[in-house]
Amino acid sequence: MPILKSVAALFIILDPIGLIPVFMSVTQDYDSGERLRMLSRATLVALILILVFTFAGTGILKFFGITVSDFRIAGGVLLLVIALRIINEAHFGSPNGGTGVVPLAVPLLVGPGAITTTIVLIGSYGLWITFTAVLITFAVMFIIFRYVNFLYVILGKTGSDVVAKLMGMLLAAIAIQFIRQGIQQILHV
To answer: Which of 5, 91, 92, 115 could form a disulfide with 164 if both were Cys (CB 3.0 to 4.6 A apart)?
Structure first.
């Protein structure tokens, strides 16, 4: 089912549960209401950015003469690097600096992996399935962030890191799938 696969791929790359410790550290000086407002704003900005890439991404590829197969291979390699980083290191480390749209929306939510995944999904399943998957994924993500304080108490840093590592493994598998599909399309296998 393409919509379910698309939502799963986006959810894994966005990894909202694995990002809970990062968000908690970024917003540690805020009370729960301020934290919710900050995460809501960051989620909205991230949604707008990913929608821009959803609708303009393939046009950008065409402008530079890049095929979806080329981007699928490059994106798969990039996702594999990100997955290995998640698996082998602490999850992106703690961000330093102020809070706000940066670093919450960009690059933690919408970074190269999310953009790559979105463009590859468009090539695989089409614009409207990808658009719907983005909306569903961000709705689920917003619900998770709505209860971030509660989830952090339940999972803690260790639990969130374990979830991040599992998501990294799934992301690595998706990356290999992207690379394989891109090579098959180029070779017409």
So the answer is: 91
Total number of domains constituting the chain: 1
Q: CA-to-CA distance for 47 and 51, rounded, in angstroms?
A: 6
> By the 8 A CB rule, do 117 and 50 touch?
no
Confidence (pLDDT) at 100: 57
Identify which of 67, 70, 75 has the alpha carbon closest to the alpha carbon of residue 176. Answer: 75
Task: Provide CB contacts within 8 A for 121, sequence distance 6+.
Answer: 6, 9, 10, 129, 130, 133
Long-range contacts of 50-53 (CB under 8 A, 24+ apart): 50/110, 50/114, 50/115, 50/118, 50/134, 50/138, 51/131, 51/134, 53/110, 53/115, 53/118, 53/119
Query: In this structure, which long-range contacts are made by residues 150-157, counting pairs with CB atoms below 8 Å and at least 24 apart in sequence?
Result: 151/17, 151/20, 152/20, 152/21, 152/24, 155/17, 155/20, 157/21
Q: Count of alpha carbons within 13 Å of 25, Cβ hemisphere only?
A: 15
Per DSSP, 98 falls in state -
Summarised one tens digit per residue, pLDDT across range 128-183 is 999 999 999 999 999 999 998 888 889 887 887 788 788 778 878 888 988 998 89
